[in-house]
Amino acid sequence: MAAPRFDFTAPVPPADELGAVHLIAIGGSGVSGVARMFLARGVEVSGSDRADSPTLRALEAVGARVHVGHDAAHLGRAQTVIISGAIPEDNPELAAARAAGLRVLHRAQGIAALLHGRDALAVAGANGKTTTSALLTTALLAAGVGPGYVVGAPLAATGASADPGAAGAPVVVEADESDGSFLAYHPRVAVVTNVQPDHLDFWGDVEAVEQAYLDFARTIGPGGLLVTSADDPGAARLAERAGAEGITVVRWGGEGADAVLTDVRSEGMRSAGTLTFARDLGPVPAGTSVRVEVPVPGEHNVHNAVAALLAAVVGLGLSLEPVLAGLAGFAGAHRRFERVGRSRDGVEVVDDYAHNAPKVAAVVRAARSAAAGRRLVVAFQPHLFSRTRDFAQGFADGLAAADVVVLVPVYGARETQEQFPAVTSGLLAGLLRDRADAPEVHEVGSLAETAPALAELVSGTDDLVVTVGAGDITGVGPALLSLLDGPSSAGGTDR
């Protein structure tokens, strides 16, 4: 396990005791939402980012003091500095803050400061936490709860990834396990979608990952609830260990679960399943059976919706009807099977953030359903050399369900090719081509070559193209539409 930079178990003062707050990289999608929540609480906010952006100007318009570039002088009157884990210690603002003895908090600790006096519903898991958080927020909005939320991607319905919500209302938080920061929230309700090996560059091995999730469950407040899967082996072990420690657990899944999910289907751009309550859960009596429907493809999204439903109904005691209606009206979240557009010939383009092997497999399965008989073309940009090396077979297994796979060079993020000279996208290409059920496989030499390669492959068809990865592949979809139809076509939805 990598040495942590923060003690996420330490108590954090409430927001109104932090003084003026300075956020480094304030223009980022995660940090900007937290900045808005501090502003809504009346906290003096400043921040900086390496480049100007519409996000910076929007924050300035609502009262933040923003700077382009990083300089110690930008700290101004700040008494607390908030950073993400991506900010290096030699950042001049962070270095100056530490030298001056200012309070330095991780983004998760900043969120925890905003949670004082409010119930948190924290959603964690290797896969599905953004979509589940967005589904839960949507359900609570439909039920009239007026929730706050801090989610890893903007909600399509609101255009925002964070909102303070009504005074005193519960707050939905997407809880990140990658660096242990999910220990900061102390939720009333914790949702764990699944427990699987990921971020091993930080945790080291699967045993450490599972221990971290148990530590997360232990942060649930008195009288709180853990909602988790009975079908995922890691989550099932978590449920058993947490229950043995006296934590109240509700499990969904197959036979033997507290809420049994059956008849799960994904057809086109919708998915649904039947949920039967095997025992009395919150306001719902045993034997109650309901149909859970969501307007997004993929059987995994039915599981995500059920997790959200149980958190709302069992965790908060809400009625089933408005929660089900909210789930049925879910508009999606940015980069979670997000529809980019359709060409004049009928090529449909979707973008997804999936970056670990189970996520990629789930997205390809969902895309197969959404393709509805059309050819499925997947452009995949692996994220991290270490992850590509460690889970190459899993990626190949998931991608194999596509008809055509276009492999983009690995997006290294915090890693470099020099550290992993033998790891390239060619590793996945070889595994795919060796399969008896091998799809058509293409490799491109750079991200810039991806859209032209796809245009050549799909021109004149009605193929479904899905761009997949957590790096900068998200720009390929609009570029592809521009090549197919001309510059005016890019960036829209169905035309």
Helix content: 25-40%
Q: Determine Rg (CA atoms, Å).
A: 22 Å
CATH superfamily of the largest domain: Mur-like, catalytic domain
The second-level CATH architecture of the largest domain is: 3-Layer(aba) Sandwich
CATH classification class of the largest domain: Alpha Beta
CATH topology of the largest domain: UDP-N-acetylmuramoyl-L-alanine:D-glutamate ligase
Tally of separate domains: 3
SS class: alpha/beta
Sheet with most strands: strand arrangement: 8-7-9-6-10-11-12-13-14-15
Describe the structure.
- With about 500 residues, the protein is of the alpha/beta class.
- It contains 16 helices and 21 strands.
- Helix 8 links the parallel strand 11 and strand 12.
- The radius of gyration is 22 Å and the shape is globular.
Notable traits:
495 residues, alpha/beta, Rossmann fold, UDP-N-acetylmuramoyl-L-alanine:D-glutamate ligase, Protein-Tyrosine Phosphatase, Chain A, 10-stranded mixed β-sheet, 6-stranded mixed β-sheet, 16 helices, 21 strands, 33% helix, globular, disordered C terminus
What are the SSEs and their pairings?
Blueprint: E1 21-24, H1 29-40, E2 45-49, H2 54-61, E3 65-68, E4 80-83, H3 92-99, E5 103-106, H4 107-114, E6 120-124, H5 129-142, E7 148-150, E8 162-163, E9 171-174, E10 189-192, H6 200-203, H7 206-218, E11 225-229, H8 233-244, E12 249-253, E13 259-267, E14 270-277, E15 289-294, H9 299-316, H10 320-328, E16 338-342, E17 348-352, H11 357-371, E18 376-380, H12 385-390, H13 392-399, E19 404-407, H14 426-433, E20 440-443, H15 450-458, E21 464-468, H16 476-485
Parallel strand pairs: 1-2, 1-4, 2-3, 4-5, 6-9, 6-10, 7-9, 10-11, 11-12, 12-13, 17-21, 18-19, 18-21, 19-20
Antiparallel strand pairs: 7-8, 13-14, 14-15, 16-17
Helix pairs in contact: 1-4, 5-9, 5-10, 7-8, 9-10, 11-13, 13-14, 15-16
